[in-house]
Every structure is written in structure tokens, then in C-alpha cells.
Amino acid sequence: MKTNNSFIGASLIASIACSLCCITPVLVLIAGTSGMASAFSWIEPYRPYLIGFTILVIGFTWYLKLKPKMKIDCNCEAGCDCNSGCACESCKKPKFTQSKKFLGIVTLFAALMITFPYYSSVFYPKNEKQIIIVESANIQNINLQIEGMTCTACVETINYSINKLAGILKIKTSYETGTTEIDFDNSKTTRSEIVEAINSTGYKVINSKDE
């Protein structure tokens, strides 16, 4: 039983660790300390291994839980009949933390952690602005390369920070390419203000190409 608990503990730690790089941006946004959003981005290269480890450990724990138990000889008068009040260790009701129900909860929690990057956007408040028609001469387009993005949570954090500025018309950010393309009204905000907004999240603009 203690072995099972050790496996469950290991799977919980691994499942949380594999999504820390995506959970952190959400937590820091809620806490109002967006400068730490990229604190765990270094974990991303290890994420596939952590996911694999979590699945392996949980799968093995379910195997131990579901495999047929060997019959154990008992010297009690009841003949090891659990329905007759036998006090054998094998007949005692397992603790909740050693039950299938608890293991099911752990499995669900691990699944939610592993898939967190795919639904993390629901935790972000919407701050899109109504687009107001501006002079075409004032519309400027810039492409920025950003270091540290690993998932959709990073994208949402960056977009949220940029959208707080006045004059933002359109944002297209991709963690796959590590870039963001922004259309803005240069009479209301500037490129340097946009770069500063991105850098304030903990992710860094490493170069840019203005159009």
C-alpha cells in the first residue's frame, strides 16, 4: 500500500511539473505580478518526458490496484472470511488514499494538468477593445520576435499585456514561431511602449522588423 502511495505522489508531482510553464502565466496574471510569467519556461523541453513518466506511473499504479490479489492463509477462526469479521490485514477496509476512488481522482487531476495548455485561455479575462476607424497613415505594422514562449498560456499573457495599451488594432502571436505581429495606431502608442509591455511579462523581445 505504501508503494502505491509513493507512485501516486510521484505522478502528482510530475503532472504538476510538466505544466508549470503554462500554469505560471495564469497564476501571475491573477496575482498581478506578470513579470514572473516566464519563470518556468525552462521546463518546456522536459515536458514530454514528464508526461510520459506520469502516464507510466499512473498506469502501473492502476495495474497494481486491479490485478488479482493472491489468497493469503489466515489462522483466525473465521477462516479469513472477510464477511465474517476477520481481522486480517488483507481484510481491512483500505484507507481513502489507498482506494480506487482516490486513484481515479489523481488520474483525472493528472489529465487536467497535462492538457492544461489546451484550455488555459479560458482563465484569461478578455480585454479586446472595440476597433475605432483611424487614419490609414497612422496605422503601423511591426513584427517582433519573442524569447520564452512555450504554449497558448504564454500567448494569452503577451496579448493581454499588449491590449492594455491604447491604439492596438490587431495582434497575431504564435508560440510555435516565437513571434507576434501587431497593427497599431502610432498616434496613440509607440513601438517602444509595445516592446516594454511585452518585456514586463518576463518574456523578452529579442529583435524586431518594422514594416
Task: Explain the overall architecture.
This protein has 211 residues and is of the alpha+beta class. The chain has 2 domains: 2-122; 125-210, 2-Layer Sandwich (Alpha-Beta Plaits), CATH 3.30.70. Helices cover 42% and strands 14% of the residues. It has helices spanning 2-17, 20-31, 47-66, 100-114, 116-119, 152-163, 191-199; strands at residues 139-147, 168-174, 179-185, 204-210. Strand 2 and strand 3 form a beta hairpin. Helix 1 runs parallel beside helix 4 (100-114), helix 2 (20-31) runs parallel beside helix 6 and helix 3 runs antiparallel to helix 4. It is elongated, with a radius of gyration of 26 Å.
Number of strands: 4
Largest sheet: 4 strands, antiparallel
Mean pLDDT: 80
Using the CA coordinates, give the radius of gyration. Answer: 26 Å
Strand content: 5-15%
Strand order of the largest sheet: 2-3-1-4
Quaternary assembly: single chain
Number of helices: 7
At a glance:
By secondary structure, this protein is α+β, with helices and mostly antiparallel strands. It has helices at residues 2-17, 20-31, 47-66, 100-114, 116-119, 152-163, 191-199; strands spanning 139-147, 168-174, 179-185, 204-210. The chain has two domains: 2-122; 125-210, 2-Layer Sandwich (Alpha-Beta Plaits), CATH 3.30.70.
